[in-house]
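Objective 1b. Sequence-to-structure analysis of Aspartate transaminase.
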Amino acid sequence: MKPSVVAIKQQEIFKFNARAKSIPGAVNMTVGEPNFHTPEHIKQAAIRAIENNHTHYTVPEGNHELLSAVANYLHDKYDLNYDPKTQIVATTGVTEGVFSAFNAILQDGDEVLIPSPAFTIYGPDADFNGAAPVYLDTSKTNFKVTPEMLAEAIRTNPRIKIFLLNFPSNPTGVSYTGAELEALANVLRKHDIFVISDEIYSELTYNFKHVSFGNILPEQTILMNGLSKSHAMTGWRFGVVCGPAAVISQINKIHELATTSITSITQYAALEAYTNGYDDPAIMREQYQSRRDALYEGLKEMGFDCPTPDGAFYLFAKIPEGFEQDDVKFANELLEEEHLAILPGSFFGIGGEGHLRFSYAASMENIAKCLSKLSLFLKNHKN
């Protein structure tokens, strides 16, 4: 067996979620996917594709009509300029996009700089490719990387090949303004480092307009995006990787080896989303913002401290003083006693200790139940 594979551990978030699902009636606030259904017009486009027998292989990078629609969408939404013939690959979600990019770029001994807390796939992806993940603790800077932190990390870790930036962030919900991104880009321009910018939550931004890193530093940025969060299409597994043609051609080689191509039916559904689904995310975003506000205010009243999320659908809350600060123990006892599932912050790495990640991709009814159960738990556990 390949040692780098044997060393990979099952994701703690999946194990915890499976345990929560095994408890009848548990209120589950762990799930990182929309609780909306895929819009009807997208489903109908997929049905038409099946009826018209569009069920055969496609070119590995994706149907060219689809890639043109992706390019137009990204231009209209974020003023990005990608050539659909050479600068875009359709992948099996952003998860495969990150995996293929790491495989194409990294060599043994390279390093990947990852702001932490972070989504849980990035570090293992680096390990698998013989690279060392370097975690940058952002817990003291409101979960954001500052230019000074970035410059110091690069200075002390000279083998950094990739800077992985995810915004709006899973698990914290924080994002970056255009000015903040420009300050980071000023540091990165001085170095031969790729920026993998995971912007899968770009359409779920609340407090200001999303600015893509692909706009700030196009010559070094590999943009990850897709439809899972924006159009409630997690099960369709559609992502896009965009960037300089020279690196996209190499990523496409890995993508082709791993998948041949993504499913033809998903591609027709995605074409409909990118052509006629411009306004679909706005309907969901409005509801997410209402849910965010309700959960945020309820947690604040109970003494939880957390940044106001700029986007995505997560709240990353610090356990109040006077209560158990071991977040794994806290979450396990909460699940056992109140049948309320919330993910421990330490599952997301350095800086997450003593925190809990709440997903508000949930109904208002479940948010109310969550707050009620959590309040009762705190009353029974105050030191």
